[in-house]
Amino acid sequence: MQHFIDIGIAQNRIPDYQEVKTCPVGSFLSARYKGCALQQSKAILKSYFKLKKKHKNKELKKPEIKKTSMKLDERFFKLEKGNNSFDFWLKLRDPETQEWIEYPIKNYEYAKEYFENWELRPFVEILHKDGKWYAKLSFKKTVELKEKEPKGMDVG
Question: What residues does each domain of the chain span?
Fold first, then answer.
């Protein structure tokens, strides 16, 4: 990700997929993983350029990737219901061998409602925090908004 951010800052533009093809040879990541890193870098750079435009006279610090975090789409992970003492199995695709690595997940009471009543989003974020690795799942739920009578008024 830092490689793509450095290109974007140096050339004052959002990098495109061509940069994935010219990414340093020393990386063991496949083109898919590099493309995933490019997508995350693009989001960071869009935010950076928006701030830069807003604060024209202020010198902005270049974004630096300090915390390990990967946002992976459905090409890189699978979440399957467990059929033993574990509630789920998270399968992640190894970037070097392309084989699936399985991690058991034991659900906690609070999260059970999400799996039962919400829709799992098609991505997972892998975070490294305090020496431990975490999988962050996202859910969405359609909520019907109802029009209600006004309860108060602010004339100020």
Answer: 2-54, 69-140
